[in-house]
Design brief:
CATH class of the largest domain in chain A: Alpha Beta
Strand content of chain A: 25-35%
Oligomer: heterodimer
Strand order of the largest sheet of chain A: 10-9-8-7-11-12-15
Number of helices of chain A: 7
CATH class of chain B: Mainly Beta
Shape of chain A: globular
Number of helices of chain B: 5
Distance between the termini of chain B: 51 Å
Number of strands of chain B: 8
Helix content of chain B: 25-40%
Strand order of the largest sheet of chain B: 1-8-3-6
CATH architecture of chain B: Sandwich
Distance between the termini of chain A: 23 Å
Helix content of chain A: 10-25%
Strand content of chain B: 25-35%
CATH superfamily of chain B: Jelly Rolls
Radius of gyration of chain A: 18 Å
Bound molecules: flavin-adenine dinucleotide, FE2/S2 (inorganic) cluster
Largest sheet of chain B: 4 strands, antiparallel
Number of strands of chain A: 15
Structural class of chain B: alpha+beta
Chain lengths: 285, 160
């Protein structure tokens, strides 16, 4: 896992001007927004690691933390997949293409893709939790020969709540076993029904002890996925979770996201499970 | 006794359901079992029917559904390799509480509930292990039902 990166080497408070290049509905109440930098030099310099997030600033409304959901190798735009939760996200959903906003980032720790080399990998995504895992999927598939068996378990509430469904076939063709399961469906649905933990329970694992798991989704889901992984023989030191809590400065200064010695914004959002097992159970941090 | 005995033993011992059960006991289980191959779309049992057999999935997937008046057949769970279906045949009165349908070509080990009960009565050690396994299956099923009921992805907080 890479250490947290700083947004702007000189001034992490500095927001870059970005423009909305494209917006589309990803699922009910969820949209994907592609942003491009106004300044070509910034565009050329900007890079991120899978799992990192940006702070998006809407003048007069506020600033929100949103994970980057695009391929890290894609240079022309940066995507964010966003659930309409409150004031800022709802306003963002209404903005037309061409609108300018501010972006600070990238911030935070990243998925441990280097530790995956030579190992089997299981990714467990629930709901919009697939968004921050998507760059990891792109990275793993772009370097497919470096990894062993790759499995992605995707859980959603209903079939139409699945994110990026048109990409699953391409991911499969590139060597990722994609398993989809939903909480509820009618008889037209031919995929699986049940929790991601059920799929994880019956997943064929070649070498559990040499398998690394990364999970992102509701905390209860991550908690039970991790427990299931441990019961399947995975090492607690090979399990990674993404903790998203309310943030403010995103650079470890304001203390808004502090838990004990950890700042979720700069030491996280991605943590090795054994280091944050106690935080996972703490509400309203 | 069935004609597929060696194949049956191989398939049964490869399932997680019987992990740790001795070869002698596996042989006993085989004597109460048969291999069943279901093509995609075939029904294993129907909600409300009375069945004697319980099933361990060797390969493939089985969908469980219930009939809800006005909504038709409502699927609620997919089960796969190593999982147990139709346990009412072992610990209930044999009346199935769901309809089970193969969603792809599926191979199952069908065990006679009556013969298993007899086996458990005279081989107490095997009976203990088997009921422990069934209890594990049921507790896992209960947990996943609870998580489904919690509607985790309904979007009330953060990444949901
Ligand atoms: C590191 C990080 C990455 C994130 N990535 C994404 C992403 O890729 N896509 C996405 O849709 N959302 C993501 N979020 C959550 C997102 O930041 C919040 O949904 C957003 O700030 C809500 O702002 P709002 O003004 O629209 O809603 P508000 O009016 O501020 O809040 C609406 C509701 O959301 C809750 N909420 C607000 N912020 C958070 C938060 N950070 N965590 C949990 N609950 C929150 C509030 O308690 C309230 O119930 C991420 C959060 C963090 C910390
Ligand atoms: S958000 Fe300010 S310290 Fe983490």
């Amino acid at each position: 896992m890479k250490p947290a990166a700083t947004a702007h080497p000189h001034n992490p408070w500095l927001a870059h001007a970005v423009r909305i290049a494209h917006t589309e509905t990803a699922a009910p109440g969820v949209f994907t927004c592609d942003l491009v930098f106004e300044d070509p030099l910034t565009a050329a310099e900007y890079s991120f690691s899978p799992g990192q997030f940006n702070m998006l600033y809407l003048p007069g409304l506020g600033e929100i933390a949103i994970s980057i959901s695009s391929d890290p190798d894609q240079r022309d735009s940066i995507s964010h997949t966003i659930r309409e939760a409150g004031n800022v996200t709802r306003a963002l959903a209404q903005l037309p293409v061409g609108t300018s906003l501010g972006l600070r980032g990238p911030f935070g720790s990243s998925w441990p893709t280097e530790d995956c080399v030579g190992r089997d990998v299981v990714l467990v995504a629930g709901g919009i939790g697939l968004a921050p895992l998507r760059p990891a999927v792109c990275h793993l598939l772009a370097n497919r020969e470096r990894y062993g068996e790759l499995n992605l378990i995707i859980g959603a509430r209903e079939p139409f709540g699945l994110l990026y469904p048109l990409e699953y076939d391409a991911w499969r063709a590139h060597g990722l076993n994609v398993h989809v399961t939903v909480d509820r469906a009618n008889s037209d649905w031919h995929g699986a029904i049940g929790m991601v933990t059920n799929v994880l329970d019956r997943l064929w694992l070649r070498h559990a002890e040499n398998t690394l798991l990364m999970t992102c989704g509701p905390e209860v889901m991550m908690w039970y996925s991790v427990q299931m992984a441990i019961s399947r023989g995975l090492n607690p030191k090979s399990l990674y979770v993404s903790l998203e809590r309310n943030m403010n400065c995103a650079i470890g200064l304001c203390g808004h996201c502090q838990f004990g010695p950890q700042f979720l914004c700069k030491d996280g959002p991605i943590f090795r499970y054994d280091r944050v097992a106690s935080i996972l159970k703490v509400d309203d941090l | 006794m069935n004609t597929d005995q060696p194949d049956l033993l191989k398939q049964l011992s490869a399932t997680r359901f019987v992990e740790g059960i001795s070869t002698d006991h596996l042989q006993c289980l085989c004597r109460a079992s048969r291999l069943l191959k279901l093509p995609a779309g075939a029904k294993l049992f129907q909600e409300g029917s009375i069945e004697d057999e319980v099933f361990v999935i060797s390969s493939g997937h089985i969908r469980l559904s219930m009939n809800v008046p006005g909504r038709g057949d409502v699927p609620f769970l997919t089960t796969g390799p190593g999982e147990l279906v139709g346990w009412s045949g072992l610990i209930g009165d044999g009346r199935m509480t769901a309809t089970a349908t193969a969603i792809e070509d599926t191979i199952l080990i069908a065990m006679s509930g009556k013969r298993l009960q007899e086996l458990c009565d005279c081989e107490k050690e095997l009976g203990y292990v088997l009921l422990q396994r069934v209890a594990q299956v049921l507790s896992q099923r209960l947990l996943s039902t609870r998580l489904q009921l919690m509607d985790l992805f309904s979007g009330e907080k953060g990444y949901t």
